Amino acid sequence: MNAKNPAKILLVDDDPALQELISISLELNGQQVLVASNGSEAMSLVDAQAPDLIILDLVMPVMDGVCFIRWLRQERASAVPVLIMTGVARPGMVEELKSSGATEVVRKPIDVTTFLDKVNQLLQG
Amino acid sequence: MAVRVSRYGAIFLTISVSLGVWLLAWLGLLRPADGWLYDHLTRLRPGISAAAERVLLVDTGPAPWRIEPVQWNTAARTLQELGAGAVVFTFSPPLSDAFPDSNELAAGLLVAVPPRAVAQSAPPWPLEADFQQRGIDTAPLAVPRAEAGIHRSADLQLEGRNVLVVAASQRLGAGSYSGSNTSVRVNFSGGRDWIPVVSLQRVLSGGLIPELVRGRVVLLGSVELSGAAGLYTPVHGDADPVSLTEYQGYLLETLLNHNDVRSPSLPVTLLFLLLVAAVSVVAYQRLSFVMSLRMTLVLVGLYALTGWLFLQFAALWIPLAELVLMQLLLFATLSRHRQLSSEDALQEVLADTRSWVRGHMLPEDFYESSQHWAQIITLVDQSLELERLIFLERVPAEHRVREVKALRCDIDDIDERRRDYERAPYSTAMEQGGPLQLHNAYLKTQTDTEEIQYLVPLIFAGDVVGFWAFGVAPQRLEQRGQFETVVRRFANQIAELLYHRQQWLRDQAAERGALARYLRLEGGASLNRLVTDAIKSAERRRELFDAVLRGLDTALVVYDLFGRVLTVNSAMEVLVQKHDLPVYDMTALDLLTRLTDMTRTQARQVLNHLVLQMQPMRMPVALTGDGKQNHLLVVKPLSGEDAGAAAFDISGLMFELADVSAVSALCSLKESVVEQYVWQMRNDVESIQMGTDLLLSDRPSAQQRARVSEIVGAKLKNLTRFLDRVQKDVRAPAQSISRDGYPLETLSRVQNIIAELETAAAARALRIVLEAPNFINLVIAQPAEFDKLVRNVLETLLNDAAADTEIRVRIRLEPDVVTFELSNAGFGLPDADLQRFLSGTGHAISEEFRLLHECSAALQVWGGEFKASSEVGRGFRFEFSIPAVA
């Protein structure tokens, strides 16, 4: 990934405002952003675009983040890194999400700098 | 009657009774009784006594005047020669030259002369002067005094002179009587025929032995009465009175033996009575009534025995009549006093008890008051929305009913001929035992309203106490089963109130029937009635408290101070069965250990602390294995009404288990709402955070900045509104939650309901499969209604499902709405029928579809939709959606 081939990041979140803000942040960071509003839309984009990184929200209509990540890991056997950003905080949730296939879990709110650092880390592998 | 006794009542009683009896004796009012006792005790001789030794009687026969003087001379000389101490004629023998024939003989004679008052007219006997002239001593012969015809005493002086027997005793020299009494009580203890008697003929024929005569006073006179009037003595009754001569013999023996029967002086008698009374007054107070009676009888016997002993062996007559009378009076007085005191004390206790019981209960006339029945009838009317109603009670001893209370009608609306409760429709209603819809008009028809009339028998404790008639609009009977069920419930309550009213009226009538009470010998303040009243009042209170205890929702078990079960109420019985809690086999310590996670040592310390500090202990406990603490355990010591009761004044321990699952559910509800709100807020804060960071950076373009500013501004406004909403929802009271709805987390609720129905499903080899996202938005709904909807739908599916199939539950989260799909593989219904049932217009609507109809109506209030479909042979499918919280 470089300026000529920017990394493709799939952003899956049902909040339009957050979609826009994260997209701006990632574009300023030199990444290409694909946006899905729920897990079902994200499935199509994964198959079509093969993103390098998936930023995933948990609570979404139609298909939530947990169902999507299980599909990604079990049905597609994809190893693409997944960064989960969520406001949900339950005891043992981070471990549960990681065991479902999440690469990294961060709790909202997170500042842009930290967010972009996480993204860069995950893109670099 | 209150018994008031002075401080020195005992002394007063002792003195008054003793003095009173003594006065009676002094006035002579006790003489008849005293005499009777004396006579009877005199007759009871301890054995055969030896013959008298100092006196000898010579029976001269009934006509001594026919005896020649020479014979008197011969007899007198013979007796003197035999050594008689004195020869005494109890009459005046004729004097002549032949009698006495010498001065020596004359000097040894003593002759009775009549009193001077009588002598002047006493022919033809010689005058006293004649005897004195011949050198013969004379003395008057006194007839002994009689007391009620009994001659117990004799005077010793007559006309200032010693009587004959006194003079005779004085002739014996050293053995003579020298007392100064003017009368003596003759000692008859020797019994009848005690004085030896010989005939004059025997004396004249020389048939006497010297031993029989030597040293004796010989009295000559008529001993055998032979038809003449005799004297009655204590030992000589109606059958055989004695002659005056024989009486003189007893008197002479008494004088010569110095054993006249004496009695204590009056002052001594009084002192003795006082002493005995004082001891008795003390003794009676210490003994029960029965023992007092026994003591009285024993003492009376003792007095009699003592009196006899003293009389027979000491010639002393104690005041026996006085003693007996005094003893009986003391016994009667003190027994009566004790009875009155007991009645007073009991009445005081009963009055206190009745006052206390009444203070804690409804006043008795409450059941009869018009205000009370007005409230009841209004409540019933408002609850059932009736057209009109009337409560009727049976008139005692008649076959008619009368009005108790009516609303929008009265007894006149019932035809006179239809007030006989032994006929239809009353008899029909009683047979049915429940609400009877009347097809013939019972209450007179009102032309402006349409109504259906009912007659309901009011039955309490198996007895029909009255009837309740009402009219209701036809449209209220759309759900007839439910309506009649409610009517029955009301009827039971009204019947009990009517029963109490009739009881009270009966009691009042009994109080007013004073004449009847007196005729039954139950007049006045009967202690029995007071006790019965008090017990009845206490019993009513006990029944009331038992009913309260049974009706409590809180489970209760009461232990005594030793930790043993005293009582368990109905709610606790339910818990015992539901959670397998063998409370009857558990001590307080066992129960505390079982309900909490305390060790026995810790639990023992807690109970000790409770008892010593008199403070209750509260803690949440879990009865179910899932650890949900849905009950609040309160352990408190039970003490009396004295708020300052000390430790060990407690009478037991009470364990209360209050079901706080509703409170817990409310807390859980708010917790889940807050949790969801928090992650929503985090999302919004994320936008603000990110937006702010971008605005602070110089990298975004102007256009991007503008857009970011817009987004941040909108999020800030949204967040503010959201915070207001959070505040409102967290503060929402329970009533508004259940009435108006609340943000609900539905996933866990559905999961709980499925868990509750798992057992029923498994019993029919059914599986409930849930397919739901991990996170579901909140929806606005009433918690209880939502649960009811889900449960009813699942139960409908379970009831219809074919065995060994699945009930599928799917929850879908869509942008603005949460959708629930529930379906089964079962028998199904024609869809048209299903739609009709769900709309509430189908006939023979079953309970489950009626409930679903109600639930779907509630759903619409929340802004949701409810759809159902069915196909015969395939089953049912229900789908309902509820708007999500934005």
Write a structural description.
The complex is a heterodimer of chains A (125) and B (886). With 125 residues, chain A is α/β, with parallel strands linked by helices. Chain A has one domain: Response regulator (Rossmann fold, 3-Layer(aba) Sandwich). Helices cover 45% and strands 18% of the residues of chain A. Chain A contains five helices and five strands; from the N terminus they run βαβαβαβαβα. Chain A has helices at 16-28, 39-49, 65-75, 93-100, 112-124, and strands at residues 8-12, 32-36, 53-56, 82-86, 104-107. Chain A is globular. Chain A starts with 7 loop residues before the first strand and ends with a helix. The model of chain A has no long low-confidence stretch (mean pLDDT 90). Chain B is of the alpha+beta class. Chain B folds into seven domains: 9-42 and 264-341, no CATH class; 51-257, no CATH class; 365-512, GAF domain (Beta-Lactamase, 2-Layer Sandwich), CATH 3.30.450.40; 514-551; 552-657, PAS domain (Beta-Lactamase, 2-Layer Sandwich); 665-731; 740-883, 2-Layer Sandwich (Heat Shock Protein 90). Chain B contains 28 helices and 27 strands. In chain B, strands 4-3-2-10-1-9 form a six-stranded parallel β-sheet, with helices on both faces. A five-stranded antiparallel β-sheet of chain B has the order 12-11-15-14-13. In chain B, strand 6 and strand 7 (161-162) form a beta hairpin. In chain B, helix 12 packs antiparallel against helix 13 (320-359) and helix 22 (661-696) packs antiparallel against helix 23 (702-731). The longest helix of chain B is centred in the middle third of the chain and has 40 residues, at 320-359.
